[in-house]
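Sample entry (79 residues):
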Amino acid sequence: MADEKKEIQVKLEPGMEQGIFSNAVSVHVNQNEVVIDFGYILPNAKPMTIKVVSRVNLTHQTAESFMKVLSNAVLDWRN
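Predicted structure, serialized as tokens:
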């Protein structure tokens, strides 16, 4: 059986096109899901304060796929 490539379109809402800056991340895993919080370290805040700017809930299967895609993208960038 020949490998068939699927064409996938990714659509962003107009307000999401610019993206959100994050310089901190936290991952929580339980038996049902993986929760990733992306945050921004607030400058000059004492104690150090991280404002969560986005939370993503994933199934374990989706989290594993994400980990592979992210790892490959970073390794490709380094080479």
